[in-house]
Amino acid sequence: MHVSTIACRLAVHPLKAVFVLALLVRLINLAFLAGNDSFFAEQDAFAYWALGAGLARPESFWPTLVAETDRMPLYPLLLGGIERVFGDAPRMAAILQAVVDAGTCALIAALGALVSPRVGLIAGILAAFSATLIVFSTQILTETVFLFFFTLMLLAGGCFLRHPSNGLAALAGLAGGLALATRPALAPLLAAGIPLVFVAALVQRRGFAAASVATLLFAVGSAAPVAPVWLRNVIHYGSFSLTACASSRPRARTSSSRAAVSAWRAEASCVVASA
């Protein structure tokens, strides 16, 4: 294929091109990773995989979900679904994260395109080849999922600042809420975003009532994904924080998490052998 033809297609479909390029790079990287240990370079990865194992079993789903207050539940629930379907297969989680991360690269390209199409394409290509993003997409950690929702929030927020609408306000809030359900550190930024939405709507000459509705939609969208977590902490632990009982002994938890992962793998092997 001629170089000019490729350039034309990139110009016509930049987001699709960035997504395909990023996904291809990540799948090639995955192909060179051998064994399951490659997906557990960080200590927290064992804890997340063990949480997923607990959530994958019907008999331990609710006890695990209620008892785990050190971490937000969205990512462990995602891992639980993967382990429920595929068993002890962290590579399947990494493949899903490769798709999510490729989507993040496309969102970064769209965010850059708010400045200019060329800036968007360059930003997307740089993200596609980012070593940091590539490496983290292979790890059983929250970074990939969090960054996807965080970037979606930024994109929706940027579009809202240019052309305010209730749909964009709701999308920005929901994306931020899902990012918050992955990592609690985003809470102050979302709180600061509530008055910003109201002011931005007023600056764009929307009426007070319309600005109030957009602000309400953003606030509700931000709160909805974490409302069950907050209610659980209030009811069961008497705490108004999202992480009611933050652990002060991560090394001990890591050791127990490794043991839980080993037990899960041993049980899975027994089931396969008996079958």
Features of the shown structure:
single chain, 275 residues, mainly alpha, 77% helix, flat, disordered C terminus
Mean pLDDT: 87
Low-pLDDT residue spans: 246-255, 268-275
- Number of helix segments? 14
Largest sheet: none
Structural class: mainly alpha
Whole-angstrom Rg: 21 Å
Strand content: under 5%
Helix content: over 70%
Any overview of this molecule?
The chain has 275 residues and is mainly alpha-helical. Helices cover 77% and strands 0% of the residues. It is built from 14 helices and no strands. Helix 3 packs across helix 4, helix 3 packs across helix 5 and helix 11 packs antiparallel against helix 12. The longest helix is centred in the C-terminal third of the chain and has 25 residues. It is flat, with a radius of gyration of 21 Å. The termini are far apart.
Quick gist of this model?
By secondary structure, this protein is an all-alpha fold. It is 77% helix and 0% strand. It starts with a helix and ends with a helix.
